[in-house]
Amino acid sequence: MYSPDQNTKKEYIMAFKKLINFKTLSSAFAAMLLFTTNMVMAQDTAQTATTLSTDDAAKSAMWIGVGYYVLLVLLLAVIIGIVGKILRVYDLTQQIQGKKSMNWNNILGVMFIIFLIVGLYGAYWSFTVQGAMLLPEAASIHGVKTDTMFYVTFGITVTVFVITQILLFGFSFRYRATGKRKAYFYPHNNTIEKIWTVVPAIVLTILVITGFFTWKEITNSVDAKGSPASIDIDVTGHQFAWELRYPGKDGKLGAKNYRLVTGTNKLGINYQDKHSFDDLAADTLVIPVNKSIRLNILAQDVIHSVYMPHFRLQLNAVPGLPTFFKFTPTITTADMRSKVDNPKFEYLLYCNKICGGGHYNMQKVVRVVTDAEYNQWLSKQKPYLNDQLKKELKMADNGQTKQAAPNRLALNN
């Protein structure tokens, strides 16, 4: 039987004392206890404080929630450290007594398998529980294509993820060191290199090409031959609202100039352009189903972002950089209300950039209707050229003032 000499025993005893350092463990426990007490007191204060405003209370609750999870992580780390110390002490005790030490390879191998099982269950739980938070049904032509690309990509990556994780942790357990075998030195294999280089390259090429043609359909500024012209709609963002402008009977939007922006002429429409006189203002983004829509996206102050999740539409609105997004809605608001069994359902246009304090409230109702309903709605909209703006332009014609004084808004055309 193995019997360690006197020096070896002394080394084990010193290591044992070092591991069981009462001061260190006491300090760690005291720090954890103090942190826990502070968190409990903070939660009690947040619950009993009645003078805080709603925003302050929300911020306080947010930080308490963050602190709670940080505490859990730290507590878990301390527990793992303590368990590790106990096992190490036990192992040293076994060696001091001349007994067989712990087989750490078996322990780590079992931990790998446990981690694999828990991790795969966590992934399954995430897919089944958090999967309900996916985007709703796509209500545009390109949205269906985008979703198809997403699910194909997701399916491929999840399959590869599951296989590789099972192989990684399974091999770590199956071929853990036992002292009875020697690892085989296998530095290179040309066939394997070719397989895991060529196959991903082919898959990624197909995905990229498919995505390219989908993106080309969205960003193509020229309507396809033989198809009706897209309906041009201006969407201009500023803190904290969206301004909408529709073309009139001529079907064309008038020119704009940022130098012409005033309190009355919010968009800086240039009435030297004849197409500007019948442009229409609207409070709701109403669009006809199965018709190509082109949103001309602009910003007047800071970066905003046009986001319409049901239509898989998002594009930044950047001052000085006009952009556009073309799409074709396929499901009317009425049909979607029936699908989701919610008579109050509305499509919404959000701002998806944190643009300031009122960002959360920067949204517009989007309503998809039939062609007849759209034409009826459009006929009831008032022209952007209202009486107050006419008065301002008349003053300009009389030479009393210029059409619009230069302003400090950022360039947006």
TrEMBL record:
Specify the enzyme's EC class, one word: translocase
Domain Cytochrome oxidase subunit II transmembrane region profile: start-end pairs = 127-222
Membrane-traversing stretches: 66-87, 107-128, 148-174, 195-215
Signal sequence, renumbered to the chain: 1-42
Assigned keywords, A-Z: Copper, Electron transport, Membrane, Metal-binding, Respiratory chain, Signal, Translocase, Transmembrane, Transmembrane helix, Transport
Q: How is the cofactor bound?
A: Binds a copper A center.
Main localisation? membrane
Q: Name one Pfam family in it.
A: COX2
Matching InterPro entries: CcO_II (IPR045187), CcO_II-like_C (IPR002429), Cupredoxin (IPR008972), Cyt_c_oxidase_su2_TM_dom (IPR011759), Cyt_c_oxidase_su2_TM_sf (IPR036257)
Membrane-related topology note: Multi-pass membrane protein
Q: Does the keyword Membrane apply?
A: yes
MF terms (GO), sorted A to Z:
copper ion binding; cytochrome-c oxidase activity
Q: What does this protein do?
A: Subunits I and II form the functional core of the enzyme complex. Electrons originating in cytochrome c are transferred via heme a and Cu(A) to the binuclear center formed by heme a3 and Cu(B).
Protein family membership: Belongs to the cytochrome c oxidase subunit 2 family.
> What is the official name of this protein in its record?
Cytochrome c oxidase subunit 2
High-level lineage: Bacteria, Pseudomonadati, Bacteroidota, Sphingobacteriia, Sphingobacteriales
